[in-house]
Write a structure and sequence with these properties.
Pfam families: AimR (PF22871). This is Prophage helix-turn-helix protein. InterPro entries: AimR-like. With about 400 residues, the protein is mostly helical. The chain has a domain of about 90 residues. The longest helix has 21 residues. It is elongated. The model has no long low-confidence stretch (mean pLDDT about 90).
C-alpha cells in the first residue's frame, strides 16, 4: 500500500491541491485523511473512489489505481464493498480481484461474500447458461449455507436476474415482493441502495414488457433521481434510460431517441467491460427505433442479425433479409419472437406474424406484440407492409 499512497501524495502535490480541502471534499476530518495517507489507517473504499476520480482524468490510470488499491487493501468492509462496487459498475477484473481477496480473508463473513460473489462473476461473464447457473446455484446452496442477510439476498438477486434473462417475466413480480422488504432491512446504505435499485431495474423492464408503461416509466425516473456521489449507480441509471427509450418506441420517435442517446452518452463515460457490451445494445436499439420509423438511416450501428435483416426489409431487399433469418434459424434451432416478426415481414406471411404475436404473449411480452400486430393490420388492410411512423 505504501507505493500506492506515495503515488497519490505525488499526484496531490503535482496538482497543488490542499489536503485539508480534499479531506473536506471526501467528508472526513483533516487528521483522519493524514492517517489514511500515512498508512496508519486504511481509506474507506468509496472515499478512495472519490479521491481517485478527483485526481485522475485518464480512465486507464483511474482504473489501474482502483484495482491496485483493491489488491493492497485488507479491511473486511472494504473487501465486501469492492465486490459489490465491481459488480455495480461492471468491472469484471475488479470484481475478480475483490472475490479473491475475500477468499483469502480470515473473516468468515467476508469469505461468505466471496463465495456468493463468485457466482455473480460467473453470471456476468456468462460461463454458464441460465439453466446451468440455476443448477449450480442450487448445488452451492445445498453444500454451503450462508448466514449474513446480504449474502442470502444476493443469492436471491442472482436467481431474480436469471428469471429475467430467461424472460420469465410473470414470476418476477411475486419474487420482487418477497425480496424488497428484506432489502430494506439492510443497514449499510451503499448495499441497500444498490440491491433495491437492482430489483427496480428489472421490475421496470418487466412492467414495460407487461405493457404497464406508466409504472415502468415511474420506476425508471425514481432510479434516475437517486442520489449518487460515487458513480456506482451509473450502470443502473443507464438501464433506466434504456428502458425509457424503449417505452417510447411506439409513442414518440424523438423521445425514444433522446433517452437512448442520453444512455449512450453515459455509457461512453463508464468504460467498464459491461459498459462496452451495453453500448452495443443501445446502439442496436437506436438503430431499431430508426428502422421501424424509417428515419435517419444514414449512420445505423447494428450488432444483431435481427436488426440487420430489418434494415434489408426497410431498404427493399427482402431476399437478403430472408437469407439472414433462415441462417439464424438453422444455427440457433429457432427464431426469437422478434425475428419471427421480421421473417413474417420479409415473406409477407400472415401466419408467421401471428406466430410472432403468440410467441411474444407466451413469454409475457405484451409490449412488443404491438409491432407484429401493426404489420398484420396494415397487411390485412392494404395488402402491403408499410414501414414508416411506428405509431
Amino acid at each position: 500500500m505504501k507505493h500506492w499512497l506515495a503515488k497519490i501524495i505525488d499526484q496531490i502535490d503535482f496538482q497543488k491541491k490542499n489536503q485539508e480541502d480534499i479531506a473536506k471534499y471526501l467528508g472526513i476530518s483533516g487528521p483522519a485523511f493524514s492517517k489514511n495517507l500515512s498508512g496508519k489507517s486504511e481509506l474507506n473504499f468509496l472515499n478512495m473512489i472519490k479521491l481517485v476520480k478527483d485526481l485522475y482524468e485518464d480512465n486507464v490510470e483511474l482504473t489501474f489505481m482502483v484495482r491496485e488499491f483493491c489488491k493492497k487493501m485488507s479491511g473486511k468492509k472494504n473487501i465486501r464493498i469492492a465486490m459489490e462496487y465491481g459488480n455495480a459498475i461492471g468491472d469484471f477484473e475488479l470484481l475478480r480481484i475483490a472475490v479473491q481477496k475475500g477468499f483469502n480473508s480470515n473473516n468468515t463473513i467476508t469469505k461468505e461474500w466471496a463465495f456468493v460473489y463468485e457466482m455473480v462473476l460467473i453470471r456476468l461473464k456468462r460461463f454458464l447458461s441460465d439453466k446451468s447457473l440455476l443448477e449450480e446455484l442450487n448445488e452451492r446452496k445445498k453444500h454451503r449455507s450462508v448466514k449474513s442477510d446480504e449474502t442470502k439476498i444476493m443469492l436471491d438477486i442472482i436467481t431474480f436476474y436469471t428469471l429475467y434473462e430467461s424472460r420469465e417475466y410473470k414470476m418476477l413480480f411475486n419474487y420482487s415482493e418477497m425480496l424488497l422488504p428484506k432489502i430494506e432491512k439492510i443497514k449499510d446504505n451503499f448495499t441497500r441502495d444498490l440491491y433495491r435499485i437492482r430489483i427496480q431495474e428489472i421490475i421496470a423492464y418487466a412492467s414495460l414488457m407487461d405493457d404497464k408503461i406508466d409504472k415502468s416509466r415511474e420506476i425508471c425516473h425514481e432510479i434516475l433521481n437517486t442520489k449518487d456521489d460515487f458513480g456506482y449507480l451509473d450502470m443502473l441509471k443507464v438501464s433506466a434510460l434504456g428502458c425509457l427509450g424503449e417505452s417510447y418506441s411506439f409513442d414518440s420517435y424523438e423521445q425514444s431517441l433522446w433517452y437512448l442517446t442520453k444512455g449512450i452518452d453515459l455509457l461512453n463515460r463508464c468504460h467498464s467491460d459491461r459498459a462496452l457490451e451495453r453500448n452495443k445494445n443501445f446502439l442496436n436499439m437506436r438503430s431499431y427505433i430508426r428502422l421501424i420509423n424509417n428515419k435517419d438511416l444514414h449512420d445505423l450501428e447494428i450488432y444483431d442479425v435481427g436488426e440487420e435483416a430489418l434494415k434489408y426489409i426497410v431498404l427493399g431487399n427482402e431476399s437478403r433479409a430472408i437469407e439472414l433469418l433462415k441462417n439464424e434459424e438453422k444455427e440457433k434451432g429457432k427464431l426469437s419472437s422478434m425475428k419471427l416478426c421480421y421473417l413474417g415481414m420479409a415473406l409477407k406471411d400472415r401466419l408467421l406474424l401471428e406466430r410472432s404475436i403468440e410467441s411474444f404473449i407466451g413469454e409475457g411480452c405484451k409490449f412488443y406484440c404491438k409491432l407484429p400486430k401493426k404489420i398484420l393490420e396494415e397487411f390485412n388492410k392494404y395488402g402491403i407492409i408499410y414501414m414508416g411512423d411506428a405509431k
